Every structure is written in structure tokens, then in C-alpha cells.
Amino acid sequence: MENNFFKNVEKKTGVNMKDIFELANSLQNANFQDEKTVRNVIRRVSQIANKPVSREMEEQIVQSIVKDGKQLDLNTISRMMNKK
Asked: Which InterPro entries does the UniProt entry name for this protein (predicted)?
């Protein structure tokens, strides 16, 4: 069932499953209170998704996570990126 989930995500997004796993692994021990870490994650997601993130959007995401304490998950980032 997990494999089908990731295949569906890959099919819908065009993102390679290997890249998704690498990103997920990098998120496990990441410090999301650290602005530099959050910026790196945002840039990595942008690169994987092949969706550029403006400086303004990056700043909004960083603000939301680091300063407002919101949780970082791929759905949240995806929704924020699709708002532009």
C-alpha cells in the first residue's frame, strides 16, 4: 500500500520517488527552529518540484515556520507554493 501511495504521488507530481525519500530522510533530524535549515528545505522542495519560489514566498514560509512555530510538512509547503 505504501508503494502505491508513493507511485501515485510520483505520477501526480512528476517527482521521482527516490527524491521524495531523500527529502523525507533529510527532514527527520532537521532543526526547524533554525532559519538556515528551513531555507535549505524550501529550496530543496522547490528544486525537486521544479517550482521556483520567489524571495517573498520563501520569506513567508520561513516566517510561518520559524517565527510562528507552524509545523513543516510537504502539504503545507505545496499549498503555499501554489498560492502564487
From this structure: SpoVIF
Per-residue pLDDT tens digits of the chain, which is 84 residues long: 567 887 787 788 787 888 878 888 888 888 888 999 989 988 988 888 888 999 999 998 888 888 777 666 667 666 666 654
- The residue among 28, 38, 27 whose CA lies nearest residue 61 is 38
Going from N- to C-terminal start, the domains of the chain cover 2-82
73's CB contacts (< 8 A; 6+ apart) are none
- The grid coordinates of residue 20 equal 521524495
Q: Which H or E element spans position 25?
A: helix 17-28
What does pTM read for this prediction? 0.69
Q: At a CB cut-off of 8 Å and minimum separation 6, what does 33 contact?
A: 66
